[in-house]
Amino acid sequence: MRWRMILTFLLASTLLLSGCKQNENDVYIGMQRNTIQDLKSGREMDYIYEFRGHSKHWAALYITYKPKGEENHTSRLFMKYIGKDPRPSGQLRYEYDTVGGGDGNGTLPSVDKIGNVYSLGSSGGNGSTANPDSSVKMQVWWNKTSETIQLDPIGTE
Question: From which residue to which does the signal peptide run (predicted)?
Answer without folding.
Answer: 1-18
